[in-house]
Input
Amino acid sequence: MLVRRIARPLLASSFIYGGIDTLRNPQSRVPGARPVVEKVTEQADKSLPVTVPRDVEQWVKIDAAVKVGAGSLFALGKFPRLAALLMAGSIVPTTLAGHRFWEHTDPKERFGQLSHFLKNLGLLGGLLIAAVDTEGKPSVGYRARRAAKKASNSTEKSIAKAQKRAAKAQKKAEKRLK
Output
């Protein structure tokens, strides 16, 4: 559909641009990302059997690479649902790290950060819609239920035929015994 061909690159453009900018200059994002990375790595170390790297710049670069890669795939219409999910997963820590409006006391700065925070929430909403967009095709769940129902009906028919054949064979055997 034409709308998807236009909307996907538009939605992906800020992710691709932001990711490239961050890959070129990751140090500018490190201070904002530090609190989020520290909380995530702390929780991961408690939950996972392996230790998670704590290098904040490395996490910033990984996040930027995900944005560029997933944004490019999404813009091109390749694996759009997966790409939308990856971008949605990437925008959450970015928003929490970069737009902490609750920490600002200056009304202008607070308003600016709140505006960016809400803009990112809007992008997240659009990505979630894109992640469930099946492009008019039946969903995987629908196709699985339909296939299961067909298999069930086919099995029931096969059992009924087998029962009829068994009953016929039994009658034939009884006739031979007489």
Notes: The CA atoms of residues 37 and 59 lie 7 Å apart.
